[in-house]
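Supplementary Text 2. Reproducibility record for the structural model of the 68-residue chain.

All settings were left at their defaults, and a single model was retained for analysis rather than an ensemble. We include the record here because the model underlies the residue-level annotations in Supplementary Table 4.
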Amino acid sequence: MDINPLKLIFKLNSNGECTSQLNSIQDISYFFQYLAKNLNGDKLSPSFKDKAQVILKFSSIIKENRIL
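Retained model, structure tokens:
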């Protein structure tokens, strides 16, 4: 899997997992670039499954911290 763009946007805990605290809102563009990557490519990297997992994690972070 490519680098998870959420790890660039949100602060990480001691286990390397994303928290609901923003690290850099300027890097939000990486999230959209990640999702748009390889739309017409033959070999999908990241896969639809990887993208879905990132979207679900992003959604859970937003639900956890509605201030975002």
